[in-house]
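hey so u asked for the seq, here:
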Amino acid sequence: MVVAGIDVGSLTAEVVLLDRGEVMHYVIMPTGANSKTAAEKAIDTALEAVGLRRSDLDYVVATGYGRVSIEFADKRITEITCHGRGAYYLNPAVRTVIDIGGQDSKVISLSDKGKVLDFAMNDKCAAGTGRFLEVMAQALEVELEGLAELSDQAQDTVSISSICTVFAESEVVSLIARGLPRENIALGLHQSIADRTAGMVHRIGLEEAVMITGGVAKNAAVVRALNEKLKTDIIVPNEPQIAGALGAALLAAEELLN
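ran it, structure tokens below
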């Protein structure tokens, strides 16, 4: 019984293949300009890696903002449900999930059975997301992957007052022009993301254990700032970007059993 979960976000598309509840393979690739094309390329790449074709799949669940464009999906389920399911599978002790993706962020509260109890979501603005970090890295003239390392070199922090990506970029350019150290600005940016995310966590209530998923979970400086802000040790999965697709695949397997 081979099933697939596919999560098409604004920046990346992820596919997870499951065979009898075990992960066979997964892929992560850029979404690009067309979510439908990205979904097809991602699923075909994953299947080719294990020597299968789409006709070999017993069920496919799609999630993410691009789920409506995935014509080959048997069912479409919201990313809130899928991220919660994926996180709970990775660690059944998880009660709070922080997902920071390319252009939105969400906090999900789970029951001891892994069911979604409540959630808060920021999908109106890219502030505090992967896109925010991309823009800030460009303003600081550093590669996105080097932003956390730059932040680690800070001797002090700089308060970033703007929460809008556009205004924050202008603020960063102004701070650089004033001669403030780039590493201090980077630390301030990571702390501003932690402040914004912690606000969402407190809106629904913090309950441990806490897990972070999404591409921004790979930024150690953001995780560290959140640890300090929330006063907890946040769990980071080995591959935090596939939580949504994993949850979709698990739900696909459950659909076959019902």
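Helices lie at 35-49, 79-90, 130-139, 147-152, 165-177, 182-204, 220-230, 243-257. The mean pLDDT is 93.
lmk if thats what u needed
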